[in-house]
Amino acid sequence: MLDPxxxxxxxxxxxxxxxxxxxxxxxxxxxxVDAVHDxxxxxxxxxxxxxxxxxxDRRLHDEQLDALLPRADALLTLTxxxxxxxxxxxxxxxxxxxxxxxxxxxxxxxAADCRARRRTDAFRVGLHVxxxxxxxxxxxxLPTLAETVAxxxxxxLQVNAHRDVVQGGAREDAELYEWLRDAEASGSVDxxxxxxLPDQDLWNYxxxxxxxxxxxxxxxxxxxxxACRDLGTTVLAPTCGYFAxxxxxxxxxxxxxxxxxxxxxxxxxxxxxxRPQWGAGIDERRVQRAEVAxxxxxxxxxVARTVGR
Length: 309
What we know:
Layout: H1 4-9, E1 14-17, H2 26-38, E2 42-47, H3 59-68, E3 74-77, H4 80-90, E4 94-96, H5 105-116, E5 123-130, H6 138-150, E6 155-162, H7 163-166, H8 174-186, E7 190-194, H9 199-207, E8 211-213, H10 223-230, E9 234-238, E10 250-252, H11 261-274, H12 282-307
Helix pairs in contact: 2-3, 5-9, 6-11
């Protein structure tokens, strides 16, 4: 669909781009939008990432955004902070549309019931190293996190790792795995190694946590954060990006150049002491979904009418 030939061969009114252009040359993206416009259609983009979490070097993504954003007929994004950055960098106004729920409503209801029945003295902190995106810096976070959790009554630190990170896969990190094995042997970490989790297993895992720690040193927005909110799990997010604008979260200072471990320790202790209930309820998500749909309908109608065919 991101090929100008596909655009010219298919009938539609609006092409709305979210993801999928990571590896494309900026000139190819210019050609894509030109093909949309040359055939009388409209191009809309939702800007999820202002800094690509998969790219260690930001230059390619910046060039891709330079190709797309000035040419879009309408822009959307998820937070006011991201909209402000878009205005500063490209002089374009982006409509802010909140991220809708990630977890289905029935699973949200089951998770809420399970959480209500859970022991109140237990406190499970989770850090998921997945397939180690370049944006992730778990070893900056883990030593302090383990020390803090060990000092809290009833608290457990659970680390979930994909096999490709710790068992000879494409993203193996020997230093991280050595640390995790030692921590597991000492009893300071409950280590779970597995392949990619199907959705239901992922929701069960996230719903079992009281606090999910995001070990990102750069980024913009997070679908993981939204899934945690759907399941009633408090999120501890870094101060980089605009994670804290997506919904109520705890924060600690962390970006590419700096981490404040005291703020990490303090946030975990606050979560343990206060047990904040900052999840997004089912009624809230229903209303939000309707609002998101209405905004998209309005944007599509506006650009289709303006561009015309």
